[in-house]
Structures are given as C-alpha cells and as structure tokens.
C-alpha cells in the first residue's frame, strides 16, 4: 500500500498541486461535532449548516469509499486586474472548478484519470466539494485553519482545495510547517464589515458578504447588512487581506486565462448597464454562484455598492435602472434614490 500512496502523491505533485494528503473516511466523523457547536452558538444558522452533516457520514452515500485524497493548489500567483480589487473576491476571479481553459482544471482531470489508471475507484464533486474540504485538509496535516476560518499553507490562504473519495484504505499525513496565528491577533474579527466573523474560528454565513452577494441577499433594500457590504458585488476578501500571515504571499507572476478580457466588461456602471444576455450567458460561466435565472442579482449588488461609496457619476445609471426590465432591479434603484436623497427624474 505504501507504493500506492507514493504513486498518488507523485502524480498530484507532477500535476502542479502544492500538497497532497490522504485520510481515512473515519477521520471525518468529528466534523459533525464541529457543525453542532456552530449551530448551538448561532441557532439561526441551523438550516444552513444542517445540509453539511452528510460530510461526516460519507459511507451512507458511498459505501465503497475507504479514504479521501486531498490536494492543495495555489492561486496566489495570478495578476489581479486593479479595478476588480474590492469588487470581486480573488478566489472567484481564479476559480478553476468549471473553467476548462484553466490549467488547474485540466490538471485536476488528469490527476483523477491517473488515480483511476492505477486501479482506484474515485468520486469527486468539483463544484462544491465531495466533503468538507478545509476540515479534510487540516486532518491530512497539509496546513492549518486560522481564526478567520480559512485554510492556510506556506502560500497563505490563497489556495484552492480538492478532494476525491477512493476505494482503498490509505493514509498520508503531513506535519504542518506553518506557524499558528499570533497570540493576541484578532485583526480578521475586528475587520469583518458585517461582524459575520464574530469570534475566532466561527462565523455566521448568513451575514457574510460572500454569501449575501451570491446565494443570499435576495432582498437587499431590507437587508440589515447592506450598508456594511462596501463595494463588493461577488465575494469578499477583507478577513484574508488584513491577515498578517498572508503578508507577501501573493506573487502575481502569471495571467489567468481570459480574465483580462472579461474584466474589461466589469465595473459597477458597466454591470448595471449590462445586457441580460451577457449577464445570463457569459457571467455564470465564470461566476456560477449567481445562476442565469438570477442574473438580476448582479445589478442589485452593483446598486448597493454604488450607494455604499456614492459618486456623482453613479446617479445616471441608477436613474436608468428604475426602468430596468426586472422588478428587483427597479425596486433597488428606487431604494437607492431615496437612500441617497437624489432628486427623482421628471
């Protein structure tokens, strides 16, 4: 079995992954205990977190599975278009999960094929993860979870995680080489705009900006956190950007495929004026948390960001949005005009 472990690790590293570990299925059992702790601390999050209890009982769905292969890839090597800083979270700018043009996506496919070639049965979920990825990566000793809840290696938190179930009982556990958080540091907690990160190692996902700009925030005019969401329209990086353990970790030595071209279409004004065909067809191919049926969400987020950091040039696109074809956008535009005390046209 040791030779099989070596083959898996060597294959992962040859595909460009930074790290690879293997844990037994049983190692996920105590994930449920952690979920229960969070739900007890924040009862309102129970409907959200209950959905993930299956990650602690993987063999209920995959009775053949014996182990989990976990890999870490680095994305803190790409150039971030300057005008998208503070607008879209970096993890989403360089998201390779469904982007077939990304070399990391192709490497993921090749790695899975390599495992199958040596006789392993595999199962994964590239979009949302086959299990709790950060928990599994910590169990494998590939890094640590910091107080902002993000997983860190020597590359900081600017990494993506992938996992596969396999049908052999194997183990490959490393000893993390990264330092723990500084003893009295709580910059991430203090900096969280919505106080979603209310204390170290916990959070309320329902008030997290990344959630509110994607899956949540469906009624922003009445959302209590709308004023704290800043200029973000998809995701948020605040608790990672302020983290001293991320200092100097971003290298920006490479260009991510097709991002520069797409970024030319993205600004608050451009999103608000954007054609719905573009919003429904082009944007979800990259930013799939907002589906084509919810394309209006981009415009609502843009209006909210305009309100939070208002400039005179925003008035015209906000007025125009009052005539948008979508009721949600019209409602948000009217809310913005009242919030900003702008004179109504006509």
From TrEMBL:
Keyword 4Fe-4S belongs to the record: yes
GO MF, one annotated term: epoxyqueuosine reductase activity
Keywords tagged on the record: 4Fe-4S, Iron, Iron-sulfur, Metal-binding
The keyword Metal-binding is assigned to this record: yes
BP term (GO), one: tRNA queuosine(34) biosynthetic process
InterPro entries to which the protein is assigned, alphabetical: 4Fe4S_Fe-S-bd, QueG
Pfam families: Fer4_16
Domain 4Fe-4S ferredoxin-type: 171-202
Leader sequence residues: none
Protein name: 4Fe-4S ferredoxin-type domain-containing protein
Originating organism: Pelosinus fermentans JBW45
């Amino acid at each position: 079995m040791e030779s099989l472990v070596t083959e898996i690790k060597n294959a992962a590293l040859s595909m460009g992954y930074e790290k690879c570990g293997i844990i037994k299925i049983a190692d996920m059992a105590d994930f449920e205990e952690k979920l229960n702790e969070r739900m007890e601390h924040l009862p309102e999050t129970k409907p959200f977190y209950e959905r993930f209890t299956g990650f602690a009982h993987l063999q209920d769905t995959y009775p053949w599975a014996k182990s989990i292969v976990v890999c870490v890839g680095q994305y803190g090597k790409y150039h971030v278009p300057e005008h998208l800083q503070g607008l879209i979270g970096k993890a989403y700018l360089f998201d390779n999960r469904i982007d077939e043009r990304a070399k990391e996506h192709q490497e993921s496919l090749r790695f899975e094929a390599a495992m199958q070639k040596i006789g392993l049965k595999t199962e994964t979920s590239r979009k949302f993860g086959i299990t709790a990825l950060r928990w599994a990566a910590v169990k494998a000793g590939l890094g640590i979870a910091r107080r902002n809840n993000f997983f860190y290696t020597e590359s900081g938190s600017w990494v993506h995680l992938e996992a596969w179930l396999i049908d052999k009982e194997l183990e490959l556990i490393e000893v993390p080489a990264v330092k723990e958080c500084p003893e009295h540091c709580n910059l991430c907690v203090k900096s969280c705009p919505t106080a979603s990160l209310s204390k170290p190692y916990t959070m309320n996902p329902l008030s997290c900006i990344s959630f509110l700009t994607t899956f949540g925030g469906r009624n922003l005019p009445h959302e209590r956190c709308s004023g704290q969401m800043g200029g973000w329209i998809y995701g948020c990086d605040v608790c990672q950007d302020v983290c001293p353990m991320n200092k100097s970790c971003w290298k920006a030595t490479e260009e991510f495929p097709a991002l520069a071209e797409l970024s030319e279409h993205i600004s608050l004004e451009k999103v608000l004026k954007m054609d719905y065909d573009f919003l429904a067809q082009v944007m979800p191919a990259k930013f799939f948390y907002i589906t084509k049926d919810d394309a209006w969400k981009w415009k609502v987020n843009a209006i909210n960001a305009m309100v939070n950091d208002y400039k005179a040039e925003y008035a015209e696109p906000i007025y125009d949005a009052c005539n948008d074809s979508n009721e949600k956008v019209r409602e948000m535009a009217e809310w913005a005009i009242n919030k900003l005390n702008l004179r109504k046209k006509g």
